[in-house]
Amino acid sequence: MLTISNVRKTFNKGTINEKKALNGIDLHLDEGDFCTIIGGNGAGKSTMLNMIAGVYPIDCGKIVIDGVNISREPEYRRAKYIGRVFQDPMRGTAANMEIQENLALAYRRGQKRGLGWGIKNQEKERYKELLTQLDLGLENRMTSKVGLLSGGQRQALTLLMATLQKPKLLLLDEHTAALDPKTASKVLSLTERMVESQNLTAMMVTHNMNDAIHIGNRLIMMHEGRIIYNVAGEEKKNLKVEDLLRKFEQASGGQFANDRMMLAR
Questions:
Q1: How far is C-alpha 23 from the chain's CA centre?
Q2: Which long-range contacts (C-beta less than 8 Å, at least 24 apart) are formed by 225-229?
Q3: CA distance 20 to 8
Q4: Cα–Cα dist 69/233, whole Å
Q5: How far is the C-alpha of 255 from the C-alpha of 201, rounded, in Å?
Q6: Strand pairing partners for 230?
Q7: Residues 229 and 203: beta-carbon distance below 8 Å
Q8: Is residue 226 within 8 Å of 39, Cβ to Cβ?
Q9: Is the pLDDT of residue 265 over 60?
Q10: What was the pLDDT predicted at 122?
Q11: How many Cβ atoms are within 10 Å of 14's Cβ, its own excluded?
Q12: What is the predicted pLDDT for the residue at 111?
């Protein structure tokens, strides 16, 4: 479903602030793979997701989704392939629009636009059914402005919007990091349920090592713009946090300097 070949990215090239963000990334995901991504600050995790989404152009290499080379496609053209949930719950929704209006926008992603009635009754019934599955009471608030929702409710709605039209690839960039632990756990469970029920191919950046181990069937560790560890299947299931720390030390020749990852043990 996804193939990344020798992708490189350097920011501020030729200046004192030059930063090699990606240093020859190679990765292949099969359809239905759920890959968690860990690494210290500045390892290139979010940059890799941004390169896939087309936020920044790559310097060289190739990105292929479901057999289509999107390496040079602009961000808006990649939108029909990709669903994305950001760390900030405010980024995935339009605060001044109603819940049902946000869902209608997501439902029409990639379709031709024309003049006609906004949201038909049959469409509203579908949205109500989907919102009921979130178990947050939003099905009774479909005409409420999204800006009135809590961070957890908005993130759950964003997740629903990102998967409303089944994407080829779902990108989750620390999408529970800004939530309190109880809400984060609920959104994470919802994420697992949605990915499994729709057989989605997904990539999830996280700082929580336990989540990285126990969620999904693939795990990659990044350091200084490179993938230094790639594990799947039974080997991943048998991992412990201590194993990841040891792998990092072996691959990088140093200790984990990221306090957040250490605290997430």
A1: 21
A2: 225/9, 225/20, 225/21, 225/22, 225/23, 225/24, 225/25, 225/43, 225/44, 225/47, 226/23, 226/24, 226/25, 226/44, 227/25, 227/26, 227/27, 228/252
A3: 8
A4: 28
A5: 32
A6: 220
A7: no
A8: no
A9: no
A10: 85
A11: 7
A12: 65
Instruction: State the residue for tokens 């900030």.
Output: 88
Alpha-carbon distance values, 10 to 59, 66, 115 (Å): 7, 26, 44
Q: 3-state class of 105 per DSSP?
A: helix
pLDDT tens digits, 6-43? 999 999 988 999 899 999 999 999 999 999 999 888 88
Q: Which of 57, 44, 53 is nearest to 82 (CA)?
A: 53
The pLDDT tens digits of the residues spanning 94-145 come to: 899 999 999 988 888 766 666 556 777 888 899 999 899 888 889 999 999 9
User: Can you give the pTM of this predicted structure?
Assistant: 0.90
Helix intervals (H) in 135-264: 151-164, 181-198, 209-214, 233-237, 241-252, 259-263
